[in-house]
Amino acid sequence: MPDLLLGLDVGTTSARAVIFDAEGKTIGSSQVALSNRTTESGHVEQDLNFLWDAVVHSVSEALEDGKCSAVDLLSIGVTTQRSSIAVWEKSSGNPVAPMVVWNDLRGIERSQELREAGYPVMAIAAAAKLESVIDDIPDGREMVGNGSVLWGTLDSYLLYRISGGDLHITDRSCAWSSAYLDFFNPDQWNEDLISYQGFDTNFFPSLCATTGNLGLTSPDFLKVSIPIGAVVADQQAGMFAHGIADTKGWKATFGTSGVLMVSTGESPHFRSPLTPMVLAGWDNRTLFASEGMVRSAGEMIPWAVSTGVSSSIDDFFALADSSSSSGGISFLPALHGLGTPYNNPDAVVSIVGKSESSSKGEIARAILEGIAFRMCEIVEIAVENFAIDSTTALPIDGGLSRSDTFCQIQADLLGRPLIRHSVIEATAYGAALAGGQGIGLNYLSSEERGDFFEPVSDQAEATLKLEKWQNQVLNLNKNEGFQ
């Protein structure tokens, strides 16, 4: 069996383990669905015990699927959803509270208070919610004070469990999204904010390099000790997959959310509606990117199933494939408010132009168009702020990009070509590549391989369509809402 790399990708809706060879070929894979518990007040949580069992099961099944064993693995790269909140016992690794997912909205009021106090914290950031999580745990503040519990984003929790408690770490790409990193000195925590909230840095994970010899897996995890070569946030892992982690470039990932990321080198870009992010970091070197988010992208498809638009996810895409137009329907994807450039947590899913004669195929296509329109708004900002040429193709990946219909819709509405990554779930591939880099291997990215989607309309036509859609759905007070 050749030497292999394992990419462990734990997102909002699934835990995925994928094993790759040196050519980027998938040797074995497994995916286990994760479920969220949501409330009317906007809380979104996951059971960490179930999540950990899903991770263990997915890795075991990936090895079995690939007909290989853990001794064939050269390294493991870990990537996860960002700005989630996990709190666990230091002695056992057992969680003491459900994990609060990034799109949980309990931090809206606290975010405003922190901003007024001089701390630029968005409502979905962990820094807006960690106090609430701790205060909801019986004797939570006391346990934090005596050091019996630890916290971290999901990557930190997984590394703690994978290493058998040896590693309590996170990298800058994951830490930045929590809003606890010092934005002006991104190789350290913002101790002023941490102290303001009554915490101590001992409660926080140590900051580590994005790639490197970070530690070893516990024999309890895989029976053998495997080098952990990388920990990187999910969107940033996609940049590794596209071969642009350390060069100028851009890409869009269509997963639960839809995210456009543009690399900006060793300087953050604060002068645009896109959010500056850390792409990766090592010692005194930090790479940055700017990011725009469609908060509700792929998650709109299960929503469509739950509301009766289709009977299943496969049926949804078949319906969308069957319709050549949306029949005048405009759709606003906003299950968790609107992201870039609006940052409006109060926005709701809305539909305009639906009538009794509207077919389910037209509604399904309108949903895909709504997601694509939202990405168009973000791409437009990136083009204006980063001097991206009108003919430059946009690399894409993520589960929603499996749909040729969606990819063609997006290319047409952008008026520019798309390149779909040959590995659709590119975050797992990027994590594996980063893990290989961490132990000194230069495995191949596959940015030049994939499917091209050429637009059949030009940018002028696409711009008119976008403006019409914006006029119909962004004035939320006039929307009908979804019936």
Cα radius of gyration in angstroms: 22 Å
Strand order of the largest sheet: 16-17-15-14-20-21-22
Quickly name the level 1 CATH class of the domain at 4-235: Alpha Beta
Q: What is the molecular shape?
A: globular
| Residues in helix, % | 25-40%
What's the overall average pLDDT, rounded? 93
CATH topology of the domain at 4-235: Nucleotidyltransferase, domain 5
Question: In total, how many beta strands?
Answer: 22
Q: Which sheet architecture does the biggest sheet show? A: 7 strands, mixed
**Known CATH architecture of the domain at 4-235:** 2-Layer Sandwich
Write up what this structure looks like:
Helix content is 33%, strand content 23%. The protein is of the alpha+beta class. The protein has a domain at 4-235: Nucleotidyltransferase, domain 5. The strands form six sheets. The chain has a seven-stranded mixed beta sheet, sandwiched between helices. The protein has a six-stranded mixed beta sheet with strand order 3-2-1-6-13-12, sandwiched between helices. The longest helix is centred in the last third of the chain and has 27 residues, at 360-386. The termini are far apart.
Short description:
The chain is α+β, with helices and mostly antiparallel strands. The chain has 15 helices and 22 strands.
